[in-house]
Specification:
The complex is a heterodimer of chains A (826) and B (51). Chain A has 826 residues and is an alpha/beta fold. Among the domains of chain A are: 256 residues, Rossmann fold (3-Layer(aba) Sandwich), CATH 3.40.50.300; 125 residues, no CATH class; 178 residues, Helix Hairpins (Orthogonal Bundle). Chain A is built from 20 helices and 15 strands. In chain A, a hairpin with a 4-residue loop joins strand 9 and strand 10. The two termini of chain A are 28 Å apart. The mean pLDDT of chain A is 88. Chain B has one domain. Helices cover 88% and strands 0% of the residues of chain B. The mean pLDDT of chain B is 88. Classes of the chains: A alpha/beta (826), B mainly alpha (51). At the A-B interface, helix 6, helix 7 and helix 16 of A face helix 1 and helix 2 of B.
Amino acid sequence: MPFRIRSIRLQGFRGFDKPEEIALSDDVTLLYGENGSGKSSLLQAIEWAMTGSIPYMKGGDFTREDAIVNLFTKSKRAAVELSLQNEGAPVTIRRTRKMGTRTSAGKQPLELKIGDKALTEDEAEAKLEQILNISLKEFPQNKYLHQETLRDILQAKPEERTQAIDKLIGTYEVREFTRTLDADTQIGKAIKRITDTVEALQRDKVQFLLNLKRNLEEIKKKLLEKGLSEDELTLSSTVNILREVQAGAAELAETYRVKTFKQTTIAPAAQSLSDTYKAISDQIAILDRARLELMNKINIQKSLLQKDSARYRELCARFEGMSNIDSAAISSKLNEIVEELGDIGAKIKENRLKLGILPQRRTKFENAKSSLEKERKELSELVERYGSLEEITVKIQEGEKKLKEAENELEKISGQQRLITLAIEHLEATKEKTCPVCSQGIDNESLVSELKSKIGDDLKKTINNLRDLEKGIKRERAEFDDALREHKRLKEAISRLEPEVAKAFEELSILVPGFEQLDLEEVVKNWDSEIIQLSRKEAELRSEESSLGDTLKRFIELVEELKGLQTKLQKDTSSTFKGSALLEKVGELIADLETKAEEYRDSSIVDSLKGKLDSQSNILSFLRDEERTEAAEKELPTIKNQIEGLEARKISLQALASSLQSIRQAATQYEKEASITQLKRLEESINDYYIRIQGHPHFTRFRVDIEREDPLIFSFKAASEQEDTYIPTRFSTAQLNAAALSIFMSNSSQQAGELPIMILDDPTQNMDTAHKEAFAKLVASIPPKHQVIVATEDDETRRFLIQYCKEIKSYELASWTTEGPTIKAT
Amino acid sequence: MSESIFQRYVKEKLPREDDRQLFEELYKVYIEGGEEDLAKYLKDLIAKLEA
């Protein structure tokens, strides 16, 4: 008995986070649920556990994330375990995977347990292929009809449909390999680039050389036509001429006082000669500038001499005209004026000073005098009122004496008053009737009354009088004290003011002696008048001083300038002559300078050198072109080698294109033959399945033919005894669906090995009710030869399968959450 | 329909030894790395021949 898959356990795979286990029927297992409920994921889990890949998860978004490990699983790990059973020991296939960055990368090791024996990795895969007797690589096409494959067969264009068939019969890889070898465009572009490079080299290098040669010949012809000889068009000739010009420039450097030029070695090469040519050209330009500078310098010198000479002549004539001037007398007179101006200035200054301080001193004196007189008057009045100082003192002493007497009397009477008061208190208290002193009888009440009357009237009156007297004495005393203080103050003020008045008097007398007899207003007027007169005199003297000073200054300036100019001209002429002799000498010098300037004005030598140099310009250009042409000629073999190399590469690429073409042809031939062989082999089986899924009432046979060979295109045809027709054009998609299922089932049944299983994902996607029923009947007939797993969202298909399949396990998948779907056995 | 049958078939059809070697080389790349690796290999080979 071959193997059956008994259960699938999975966790963290695709849409399943929490662990799930599904027991499979040995016959038919039905997975029913709406789109996205996890049916395909469960089928993919079987495929992935077996092969480690899911064919439809390639490229695009699958390269950007891991689509195998569940997005929400905390362990970030996927694990699928399949339990297989035959008559032998149980087999467990377990594959795991840690979440990676993309679907196709990362390890996903396989563990295989056969009874107690455990194997891993390559050993496990080899053993699994051996015990199942299948190629794991071919598992997808032989065991698993993907809904995408079915969709491609039903809906795609002929070429894509053929590829889908390729996937079913196992020739898809040959097709993919052959298609990838189609590199004609790439090779064509590479050959084009090489061809362009070769053309560019031929154009830019070879053609360039030819152009150079042609131009060189033309230039040479023109130079010869201009009268130049062949010998002159040589490097040696140019070297000689440049040497000649260089030597001439060196000689002229001395003449024109230019720093000696560095003599360079002239090499017989065009570029070197060009450099030398440029250097000599610069030297000649320097010489020409130096010549012009020298000429200008001499002309300036000559012009200055002419100007100085004219000025000297003029100064001499003016000096003659001023011969009568006595400079010593002028100087003496100027000294006198200066002295007199000094005196006048001092006098004016003195008067102005006196005018300034007179009011102040006058005020000071008058104020001091006024204050003194006031104090003296107040003292006189005080003396008149209170007497002299001695008299005031006596009066104060008398007042003090009177005050003492009044106070003594007041004390005495006060004592009597206290005694009487005590007696009254005693009498009233004791009520005595006899005198304690004399023991005489007394009338107590009368005595008390008498004593009270005495205190109340007599003593009180006397005391009041004495107190009034005391007050009067004190008041008088205070008045005399004030008078005494005032007297002293006035005396002190007078003593202070008297020297002040004397000093102010003296100061004023110094300024205006005998001022008491003078009218000070008149004195001031006199001083003002004197200042005016002195100022007038000062102005006159200053005018005279200025006039004399100017005359003297002009004379001195003339003499100074004359002397200076004479000295300069004597220096210029290197002589000691004066006057007309000196002027004659200057004339000779100017004539010499004119001669020199003429010499420097002559540019013929420089022009000659320049002419010789210029004559080499065109020759040098020719020599440079000649050198460049020679260099290009030397480069030519290298270019040829380059071109040969490129041509060789082109041939290699063409050979590669040819080889690829041969390989593609052979591979395509193989694909065609293998496909036809496989389809022919399957033809009876395909037709058997096709009829059972109720293919067509008239066209009872199904045939796959080759429509085109490169690329290989199949045609799907339905045939009767008399005719055949293309299925996609005449039949419904349900019939096309039936055809695709027929191909898959027949291929799968032939490649069953020791694991005869058919996994069908959404197989009735385009079928009508009748076809669905026929399909269910077909599925029911497949076990026990094959185990079948069908996933569908179609309720009719579900009902037909349950109706016709005897041993069926049915599950419903629903309510998907991040933990996975709810799986319910129905 | 194993790979070895395909390889044998193609090699028998290719008369030139160079072509047979090239086929072996290219098919090995395809088997080991798939379509993408083969395309890259060819691209590099063309670039190498062109350079």
